[in-house]
Amino acid sequence: MATYAIGDLQGCHGPLQRLLTKCSFSAADDQLWFVGDLVNRGPDSLAILRFVKSLGDQAVVVLGNHDLHLLTVASGFNKAHRGDTLDEILNALDRDELLHWLRHRPMLHRAAGYTMIHAGLLPSWSVDQAECLAHEVETALRSSDYLDFLSHMYGNQPIRWRDDLSGWERLRVITNGLTRLRICTEQGEMEFAHKGELETIPSGYMPWYDVPTRLSLGEPIICGHWSALGLKLESDLLALDTGCLWGRCLSAVRLEDRALFQVHCSEYERS
What we know:
Layout: E1 3-6, H1 13-23, E2 31-34, H2 45-54, E3 59-61, H3 65-74, H4 87-90, H5 95-103, E4 109-111, E5 114-116, H6 127-142, H7 146-152, H8 167-180, E6 183-184, E7 190-191, E8 206-207, E9 221-223, E10 232-234, E11 237-239, E12 249-254, E13 259-264
Parallel strand pairs: 1-2, 2-3, 5-9, 9-11
Antiparallel strand pairs: 1-12, 4-5, 6-7, 6-8, 10-11, 12-13
Helix pairs in contact: 6-8
Protein backbone atom coordinates (compact mmCIF):
# COMPACT_ATOMS: atom_id res chain seq x y z
CA MET A 1 0.00 0.00 0.00
CA ALA A 2 1.22 3.48 -0.91
CA THR A 3 -0.01 6.88 0.26
CA TYR A 4 0.17 9.80 -2.17
CA ALA A 5 -0.24 13.40 -0.98
CA ILE A 6 -1.50 15.58 -3.84
CA GLY A 7 -1.50 19.35 -4.26
CA ASP A 8 -4.41 21.70 -4.97
CA LEU A 9 -6.65 20.41 -7.78
CA GLN A 10 -9.12 23.30 -8.22
CA GLY A 11 -11.19 21.48 -10.77
CA CYS A 12 -8.31 20.14 -12.89
CA HIS A 13 -9.59 16.62 -13.53
CA GLY A 14 -7.50 15.71 -16.57
CA PRO A 15 -4.13 16.35 -14.89
CA LEU A 16 -5.24 14.36 -11.85
CA GLN A 17 -6.00 11.32 -13.98
CA ARG A 18 -2.62 11.61 -15.72
CA LEU A 19 -0.88 11.95 -12.37
CA LEU A 20 -2.57 8.85 -10.97
CA THR A 21 -1.50 6.90 -14.05
CA LYS A 22 2.07 8.11 -13.55
CA CYS A 23 1.93 7.02 -9.90
CA SER A 24 0.48 3.62 -10.89
CA PHE A 25 -2.24 4.33 -8.35
CA SER A 26 -4.28 1.30 -7.30
CA ALA A 27 -7.74 2.11 -5.97
CA ALA A 28 -7.76 -1.27 -4.25
CA ASP A 29 -4.50 -0.83 -2.35
CA ASP A 30 -3.38 2.81 -2.25
CA GLN A 31 -4.64 5.93 -0.55
CA LEU A 32 -4.75 9.53 -1.79
CA TRP A 33 -4.39 12.52 0.50
CA PHE A 34 -5.68 15.80 -0.95
CA VAL A 35 -4.56 19.11 0.59
CA GLY A 36 -7.87 20.85 -0.12
CA ASP A 37 -9.21 23.17 -2.79
CA LEU A 38 -10.67 20.34 -4.80
CA VAL A 39 -12.84 22.82 -6.67
CA ASN A 40 -13.08 26.18 -8.41
CA ARG A 41 -11.33 28.12 -11.16
CA GLY A 42 -10.55 24.99 -13.17
CA PRO A 43 -13.00 23.52 -15.72
CA ASP A 44 -14.02 20.23 -14.12
CA SER A 45 -14.93 20.82 -10.47
CA LEU A 46 -17.99 18.59 -10.66
CA ALA A 47 -15.98 15.70 -12.11
CA ILE A 48 -13.36 16.15 -9.38
CA LEU A 49 -15.93 16.02 -6.58
CA ARG A 50 -17.65 12.97 -8.01
CA PHE A 51 -14.38 11.13 -8.58
CA VAL A 52 -12.81 11.84 -5.18
CA LYS A 53 -16.07 11.01 -3.39
CA SER A 54 -16.30 7.74 -5.31
CA LEU A 55 -12.95 6.64 -3.85
CA GLY A 56 -14.50 6.29 -0.41
CA ASP A 57 -11.93 5.55 2.28
CA GLN A 58 -9.15 5.49 -0.31
CA ALA A 59 -9.30 9.31 -0.38
CA VAL A 60 -8.61 11.69 2.51
CA VAL A 61 -9.50 15.34 1.90
CA VAL A 62 -8.96 18.35 4.12
CA LEU A 63 -11.03 21.42 3.39
CA GLY A 64 -9.52 24.43 1.66
CA ASN A 65 -10.73 27.98 1.26
CA HIS A 66 -12.26 27.30 -2.17
CA ASP A 67 -14.16 24.30 -0.82
CA LEU A 68 -15.59 26.47 1.96
CA HIS A 69 -16.38 29.16 -0.62
CA LEU A 70 -18.47 26.63 -2.53
CA LEU A 71 -20.41 25.80 0.64
CA THR A 72 -21.13 29.47 1.36
CA VAL A 73 -22.22 30.19 -2.21
CA ALA A 74 -24.47 27.13 -2.22
CA SER A 75 -26.00 28.26 1.08
CA GLY A 76 -26.63 31.80 -0.16
CA PHE A 77 -24.20 33.55 2.20
CA ASN A 78 -21.75 34.57 -0.50
CA LYS A 79 -21.90 35.48 -4.17
CA ALA A 80 -19.82 33.77 -6.80
CA HIS A 81 -16.64 35.63 -7.66
CA ARG A 82 -15.44 36.54 -11.11
CA GLY A 83 -13.62 33.50 -12.45
CA ASP A 84 -15.50 30.98 -10.30
CA THR A 85 -16.46 27.73 -12.00
CA LEU A 86 -19.00 26.38 -9.54
CA ASP A 87 -22.23 26.53 -11.56
CA GLU A 88 -21.96 22.95 -12.80
CA ILE A 89 -21.88 21.71 -9.21
CA LEU A 90 -24.66 24.03 -8.07
CA ASN A 91 -26.91 22.84 -10.91
CA ALA A 92 -26.07 19.13 -10.63
CA LEU A 93 -28.76 16.59 -9.74
CA ASP A 94 -26.47 15.18 -7.04
CA ARG A 95 -25.58 18.65 -5.71
CA ASP A 96 -26.95 18.08 -2.20
CA GLU A 97 -25.24 14.72 -1.84
CA LEU A 98 -21.90 16.19 -2.95
CA LEU A 99 -22.18 19.24 -0.69
CA HIS A 100 -23.12 17.06 2.28
CA TRP A 101 -20.08 14.90 1.64
CA LEU A 102 -17.82 17.94 1.30
CA ARG A 103 -19.12 19.52 4.49
CA HIS A 104 -18.14 16.39 6.40
CA ARG A 105 -14.50 16.41 5.30
CA PRO A 106 -11.94 17.20 8.04
CA MET A 107 -10.04 20.43 8.51
CA LEU A 108 -6.89 18.57 9.56
CA HIS A 109 -5.74 15.00 9.04
CA ARG A 110 -3.07 13.35 11.15
CA ALA A 111 -1.70 9.89 10.44
CA ALA A 112 1.48 7.99 9.58
CA GLY A 113 3.68 10.64 11.21
CA TYR A 114 2.27 13.49 9.09
CA THR A 115 -0.20 16.31 9.68
CA MET A 116 -2.08 17.58 6.61
CA ILE A 117 -3.80 20.95 6.51
CA HIS A 118 -4.70 23.23 3.62
CA ALA A 119 -2.82 26.44 4.45
CA GLY A 120 -0.85 26.74 7.67
CA LEU A 121 -0.54 26.53 11.43
CA LEU A 122 -0.29 29.59 13.63
CA PRO A 123 2.98 29.74 15.59
CA SER A 124 1.31 29.42 19.00
CA TRP A 125 -0.38 26.14 18.00
CA SER A 126 1.19 22.81 18.69
CA VAL A 127 0.02 20.04 16.38
CA ASP A 128 -1.97 18.56 19.26
CA GLN A 129 -3.73 21.87 19.86
CA ALA A 130 -4.32 22.44 16.15
CA GLU A 131 -5.96 19.02 15.91
CA CYS A 132 -8.31 19.87 18.76
CA LEU A 133 -9.12 23.29 17.27
CA ALA A 134 -9.79 21.74 13.87
CA HIS A 135 -12.33 19.45 15.51
CA GLU A 136 -14.19 22.51 16.79
CA VAL A 137 -14.71 23.78 13.24
CA GLU A 138 -15.54 20.30 11.98
CA THR A 139 -18.23 20.01 14.65
CA ALA A 140 -19.72 23.33 13.58
CA LEU A 141 -19.72 22.34 9.90
CA ARG A 142 -21.32 18.97 10.54
CA SER A 143 -24.00 20.13 12.97
CA SER A 144 -27.63 20.77 12.14
CA ASP A 145 -26.86 24.47 12.70
CA TYR A 146 -24.03 24.58 10.17
CA LEU A 147 -25.68 27.46 8.32
CA ASP A 148 -25.09 29.67 11.36
CA PHE A 149 -21.38 28.91 11.17
CA LEU A 150 -21.19 29.58 7.43
CA SER A 151 -22.99 32.90 7.88
CA HIS A 152 -20.35 34.06 10.41
CA MET A 153 -17.26 32.39 8.94
CA TYR A 154 -15.88 35.19 6.78
CA GLY A 155 -13.78 38.08 8.04
CA ASN A 156 -10.17 38.96 8.79
CA GLN A 157 -10.69 39.71 12.46
CA PRO A 158 -9.33 38.77 14.90
CA ILE A 159 -5.95 38.65 13.18
CA ARG A 160 -4.28 36.72 15.99
CA TRP A 161 -5.08 33.67 18.09
CA ARG A 162 -5.87 33.93 21.80
CA ASP A 163 -6.78 30.94 23.94
CA ASP A 164 -9.65 32.89 25.50
CA LEU A 165 -11.41 33.54 22.19
CA SER A 166 -14.94 32.20 22.04
CA GLY A 167 -17.92 31.96 19.73
CA TRP A 168 -17.72 32.94 16.09
CA GLU A 169 -14.42 34.84 16.56
CA ARG A 170 -12.76 31.68 17.84
CA LEU A 171 -14.04 29.54 14.96
CA ARG A 172 -13.15 32.26 12.44
CA VAL A 173 -9.50 32.47 13.54
CA ILE A 174 -9.17 28.69 13.45
CA THR A 175 -10.68 28.56 9.97
CA ASN A 176 -8.51 31.41 8.71
CA GLY A 177 -5.34 29.81 10.03
CA LEU A 178 -6.07 26.39 8.58
CA THR A 179 -7.40 27.52 5.20
CA ARG A 180 -6.05 31.03 4.43
CA LEU A 181 -2.72 31.53 6.21
CA ARG A 182 0.42 32.21 4.20
CA ILE A 183 2.33 34.80 6.19
CA CYS A 184 2.25 36.20 9.72
CA THR A 185 4.38 38.09 12.21
CA GLU A 186 6.49 36.26 14.75
CA GLN A 187 3.68 36.98 17.21
CA GLY A 188 1.17 35.26 14.92
CA GLU A 189 -0.66 38.24 13.44
CA MET A 190 -2.04 37.09 10.10
CA GLU A 191 -1.97 39.03 6.82
CA PHE A 192 -4.24 37.87 4.00
CA ALA A 193 -3.58 40.26 1.10
CA HIS A 194 -0.20 38.84 0.12
CA LYS A 195 -0.42 35.93 -2.31
CA GLY A 196 2.84 36.42 -4.17
CA GLU A 197 6.39 35.20 -4.04
CA LEU A 198 8.69 35.19 -1.03
CA GLU A 199 10.61 38.23 -2.27
CA THR A 200 7.50 40.43 -2.04
CA ILE A 201 6.41 39.59 1.52
CA PRO A 202 5.71 42.83 3.45
CA SER A 203 8.17 43.94 6.09
CA GLY A 204 7.57 42.41 9.50
CA TYR A 205 5.96 39.26 8.09
CA MET A 206 7.33 35.87 7.20
CA PRO A 207 6.01 32.55 5.90
CA TRP A 208 4.16 30.81 8.71
CA TYR A 209 6.56 27.87 8.56
CA ASP A 210 9.60 30.16 9.07
CA VAL A 211 8.48 31.56 12.43
CA PRO A 212 11.39 30.40 14.62
CA THR A 213 9.28 29.94 17.73
CA ARG A 214 6.36 28.06 16.22
CA LEU A 215 5.32 25.17 18.42
CA SER A 216 4.80 22.82 15.47
CA LEU A 217 8.47 23.11 14.42
CA GLY A 218 9.92 19.73 13.54
CA GLU A 219 6.53 18.08 12.98
CA PRO A 220 6.13 16.91 9.34
CA ILE A 221 3.33 19.02 7.82
CA ILE A 222 1.71 18.68 4.39
CA CYS A 223 -0.01 21.74 2.93
CA GLY A 224 -0.99 23.53 -0.26
CA HIS A 225 -2.73 26.88 -0.84
CA TRP A 226 0.28 29.00 -1.84
CA SER A 227 0.82 28.47 -5.56
CA ALA A 228 3.38 31.29 -5.83
CA LEU A 229 5.54 29.47 -3.29
CA GLY A 230 5.61 26.35 -5.41
CA LEU A 231 7.07 23.01 -4.41
CA LYS A 232 8.89 23.01 -1.09
CA LEU A 233 10.09 19.68 0.26
CA GLU A 234 11.85 19.76 3.60
CA SER A 235 12.15 17.37 6.51
CA ASP A 236 9.15 18.90 8.28
CA LEU A 237 7.29 20.52 5.36
CA LEU A 238 5.76 19.26 2.13
CA ALA A 239 4.22 22.27 0.34
CA LEU A 240 2.49 20.85 -2.73
CA ASP A 241 0.59 23.62 -4.52
CA THR A 242 2.63 23.78 -7.71
CA GLY A 243 0.16 25.83 -9.73
CA CYS A 244 -1.57 23.31 -11.96
CA LEU A 245 -4.40 25.80 -12.42
CA TRP A 246 -1.87 28.34 -13.71
CA GLY A 247 -0.31 26.03 -16.28
CA ARG A 248 2.57 24.71 -14.20
CA CYS A 249 2.44 21.27 -12.55
CA LEU A 250 0.29 19.00 -10.44
CA SER A 251 2.41 17.25 -7.83
CA ALA A 252 2.19 14.17 -5.65
CA VAL A 253 4.58 12.84 -3.02
CA ARG A 254 4.56 9.19 -1.99
CA LEU A 255 4.83 9.48 1.75
CA GLU A 256 6.53 6.14 2.35
CA ASP A 257 9.72 7.18 0.52
CA ARG A 258 8.99 10.82 -0.44
CA ALA A 259 9.24 10.04 -4.14
CA LEU A 260 7.97 12.97 -6.22
CA PHE A 261 5.58 12.58 -9.17
CA GLN A 262 4.54 15.48 -11.39
CA VAL A 263 2.58 16.13 -14.56
CA HIS A 264 2.64 19.35 -16.55
CA CYS A 265 -0.61 21.30 -16.86
CA SER A 266 0.14 23.28 -20.00
CA GLU A 267 -3.53 23.18 -21.03
CA TYR A 268 -4.21 25.77 -18.32
CA GLU A 269 -1.47 28.23 -19.28
CA ARG A 270 -2.51 31.87 -18.96
CA SER A 271 -1.34 34.27 -21.63
